[in-house]
Structure formats: C-alpha cells, structure tokens
Design goal:
The chain has a domain of about 90 residues: Roll (Mannose-Binding Protein A, Chain A), CATH 3.10.100. A hairpin with a 5-residue loop joins strand 3 and strand 4. Strands 3-4-8 form a three-stranded antiparallel beta sheet. The protein has a three-stranded antiparallel beta sheet with strand order 5-6-7. Helices cover about 20% and strands about 40% of the residues. It has three helices and eight strands. The protein is α+β, with helices and mostly antiparallel strands.
Length: about 150
C-alpha cells in the first residue's frame, strides 16, 4: 500500500468522525470510496455538489454563482455568464443544480452551454418546473445561469 493511502480501518474511523460532525474536517464529504473537500465559496455562491467523470471518478465541484433576472437569447446568456466571471452550465450541471440548489431558481427555462449536434441554430435548455431538457432555436429567450467548475484532483 502506498504511504499516502489510508487503511480501510482508519478511513472508516475518519468517515464516522466526519459524519458525526466531531471532526475539524466538516468540509470533507464521503462519496462511496472517495473523500473530497468542499471548495471555498465566495459571498453569494452556493455549492451544488460534484460531477463525476466518465469512469466514475470525481471530476469537478459545481458552484452556482447567479441567474439572470430577465430572459435572453442563447448567445446573450453565454456572454452574461462570462461577464459575471463564470460560465454557462452544461446539461449535467443543470440537472444537479435543479436537484441540489433548487431554491436558487424560478420555475422557468434556463439555457445550457451545449449546442445541438445536428443544427447550429439550436441549443439545449432545461425547464426547472419539471426538469425536462430540450433543444430549441438560439434566438428564443430563456434565462441565463452562471456557474463555476472547480476541478477535483
């Protein structure tokens, strides 16, 4: 076993201490066999959770920054995200935001950063009232959303 690895016994003790909140490591979270530390948040940000990569490995933390208060076409939503210091969410990001940060959203549609693979005039969006995801014309106006992705190493 590598020197940096924890034994299963010590890992179990650490996880139990974290879960019981008797540990200074309250920002550490247990997910299956992985322990990860919650990122530092800036004022007004909300940690939505983690996104897993293709092989089930932890990929990145998803942090919600803000939403637009007005509807806007797709390109304006992408520009709004950059102007706010973040980026527009992916479809996976939107699904996680709907699950874990629902209180930050109205029951309307929000643009994702993903364009249609079949027609460059279309992009993906998600309704927050029912969670459905669709493509539609980029000139149609929906809300914008801003997120920050923090890689997990």
């Amino acid at each position: 076993m590598p020197k940096a690895a924890l034994s299963l016994k010590s890992l179990d003790r650490r996880v139990r201490a974290i879960e019981s909140q008797n540990s200074p490591d309250r920002n550490l979270h247990w997910k299956g066999r992985a322990i990860f530390e919650r990122p530092e948040l800036k004022n007004g940000e909300t940690w939505a959770g983690v996104i897993f990569g293709k092989n089930g490995e932890l990929d990145y933390h998803l942090v919600h920054i803000s939403n637009s208060s007005e509807n806007m076409p797709w390109q304006e939503a992408m520009d709004y995200a950059k102007k706010c210091g973040g980026e527009a969410p992916s479809l996976r990001d939107l699904a996680l935001l709907r699950t874990n940060a629902r209180e930050k959203f109205s029951d309307v549609a929000y643009w994702s950063c993903e364009q249609s693979a079949y027609d460059s005039d279309f992009a993906w969006f998600q309704f927050f009232n029912n969670g459905h995801q669709y493509t539609w014309l980029k000139v149609i106006s929906y809300r914008g959303c801003v997120v920050r992705r923090i890689p997990i190493r």
